[in-house]
């Protein structure tokens, strides 16, 4: 895309908290209106449009050719923040909960702000959070991991024991099985943070579970499943096939170069790449090797799919191929008719790598291939982008991904035909964002 003969379209970001207008702010409104490419002219042109919407207007005395105060004062000492923190101007870029989604705050969700993130790695402080009995705060020196069942010698490991084993690091996403569940029947929430924000991707470090299973001498002939149990008050347990356990499952203690955060299962959790989030058991305390599934509470009363004919489908482990456009997306607003915009988004698959992403601006009647931005890794988020000139007419933005197995992300109508609308889980249908003639973006279904 040449910038010499193209006007860069301006975009107002979504309200950071659509649930309340009290104290509402929109972050860095100038960030996406062309800074670095005719920045001064673009900023000047943007100010009137932003000012009438209650946006922040910079003080002219801080703008070039003047020197702002921070360019003339002595800065803070090195090491004044022993642990680095985001700028206070980024205070609105946070996880958010949806009031009324669950009856208690201990068994609830905090959604990750996908619309504000770059690359494929989710910052530790923005990784979505899902708990079933509140966050457990565990002393790592008192914590133990027991491995037993169909094994030659049951063992109990301390954290020091686990850290002595050879470790590996891999980049993988975690997605809650209920992600996008509020879109099953109708578009119930307006922004991508709430439609798709139970999704994050990190570099995880730990011990392959296969190493621990070999250490205890598991019964290779009889072992068919493992049971993973967490140490939080819910005692959450999940059945996992032994072939998963011997493939790429990690007993993880590291996340993005540091120890796990408390809300991510500190000091140790299970990582089951490509499998619904609940199977990635946090605060891992026990692994049992068995010859059949356990049918525990979280595998029968919860995290099972009620089908249209009344039957319940259990053990839907894999998170199928899915994608979403994060910009432009719900509650954002395009300001320039005839302007250039870059459509950006994320794609992922629990079965491997993303092979292709297609983009439609007319609700799926016509498709064109988007650009995949590397790295393209197995069972990890993949960035995609596509150029788009908005002419001011209504548009229906969609993305559709294909993974390396050939699986094609389905339309919502196709998904409902098979699955119905009785289950909140495993909605990987195509997301549609409607752009109206004023440039405002809405969550719709077609």
Short description:
The protein is 11% helix and 27% strand. The protein has 446 residues and is mainly β.
Describe the structure.
The protein is mainly beta. The protein folds into three domains: 9-93, no CATH class; 109-313, Oxidoreductase, molybdopterin-binding domain (Sulfite Oxidase, Chain A, domain 2), CATH 3.90.420; 322-444, Sandwich (Immunoglobulin-like), CATH 2.60.40. Helix content is 11%, strand content 27%. The chain is built from seven helices and 25 strands. It has a five-stranded mixed sheet with strand order 5-4-13-8-9. Strands 6, 7, 10, 11 and 12 form a five-stranded antiparallel sheet that branches. β24 and β25 (441-444) form a beta hairpin. The chain is globular. The protein starts with 10 loop residues before the first strand and ends with a strand.
Alpha-carbon Rg, integer: 24 Å
Topology-level CATH name of the largest domain:
Sulfite Oxidase, Chain A, domain 2
Described by the principal axes of the CA atoms, the overall outline is: globular
Structural class: mainly beta
Query: How many angstroms does the end-to-end distance come to?
Result: 30 Å
Number of domains: 3
Strands of the widest sheet, in order across it, are: 5-4-13-8-9
**How helix-rich are the residues, as a percent range?**
10-25%
GO molecular function, one term: heme binding
Keywords: Metal-binding, Molybdenum, Oxidoreductase
Domain Oxidoreductase molybdopterin-binding: 137-294
Pfam family, one: Mo-co_dimer
């Amino acid at each position: 895309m040449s910038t010499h003969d193209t006007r860069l379209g301006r975009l107002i970001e979504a309200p950071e908290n659509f649930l309340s207008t009290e104290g509402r702010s929109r972050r860095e409104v100038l960030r996406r209106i062309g800074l670095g490419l005719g920045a001064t002219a673009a900023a000047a042109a943007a100010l009137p449009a932003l000012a009438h919407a209650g946006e922040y207007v910079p003080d002219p005395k801080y703008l070039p050719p003047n020197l702002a105060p921070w360019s003339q004062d002595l800065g803070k000492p090195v090491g004044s923040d022993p642990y680095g923190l985001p700028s206070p101007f980024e205070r609105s870029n946070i996880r958010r909960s949806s009031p009324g989604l669950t009856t208690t705050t201990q068994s609830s969700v905090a959604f990750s702000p996908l619309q504000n993130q770059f690359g494929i790695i989710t910052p530790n402080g923005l990784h979505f959070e899902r708990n079933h009995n509140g966050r457990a705060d565990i002393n790592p020196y008192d914590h133990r991991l027991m491995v037993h069942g169909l094994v030659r010698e049951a063992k109990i490991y301390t954290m020091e024991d686990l850290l002595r084993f050879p470790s590996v690091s891999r980049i993988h996403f975690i997605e809650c099985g209920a992600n996008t569940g509020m879109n099953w029947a109708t578009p119930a929430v307006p922004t991508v943070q709430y439609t798709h924000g139970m999704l994050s991707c990190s570099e995880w470090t730990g011990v392959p579970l296969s190493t621990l299973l070999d250490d205890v001498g598991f019964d290779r002939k009889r072992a068919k499943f493992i049971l993973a149990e967490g140490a939080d008050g819910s005692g959450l347990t999940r059945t996992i096939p032994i072939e998963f356990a011997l493939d790429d499952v990690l007993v993880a203690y590291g996340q993005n170069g540091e120890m796990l955060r408390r809300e991510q299962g500190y000091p140790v959790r299970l990582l089951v790449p490509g499998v619904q989030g609940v199977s990635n058991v946090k605060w891992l305390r026990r692994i049992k090797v068995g010859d059949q599934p356990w049918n525990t509470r979280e595998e029968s009363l919860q995290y099972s799919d009620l089908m249209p004919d009344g039957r319940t489908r259990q053990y839907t482990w894999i998170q199928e191929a899915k994608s979403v456009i994060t910009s432009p997306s719900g509650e954002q607003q395009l300001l320039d008719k005839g302007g250039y915009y870059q459509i950006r988004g994320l794609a992922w698959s629990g079965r491997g790598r993303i092979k292709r992403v297609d983009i439609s601006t007319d609700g799926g009647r016509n498709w064109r291939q988007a650009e995949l931005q590397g790295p393209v890794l197995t069972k990890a988020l993949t960035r995609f982008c596509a150029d788009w000139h908005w002419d001011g007419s209504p548009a229906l933005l969609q993305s559709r991904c294909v993974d390396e197995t050939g699986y094609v992300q389905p339309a919502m109508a196709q998904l409902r035909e098979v699955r119905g609308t009785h289950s909140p889980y495993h909605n990987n249908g195509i997301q549609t964002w409607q752009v109206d003639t004023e440039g405002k973006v809405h969550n719709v279904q077609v």
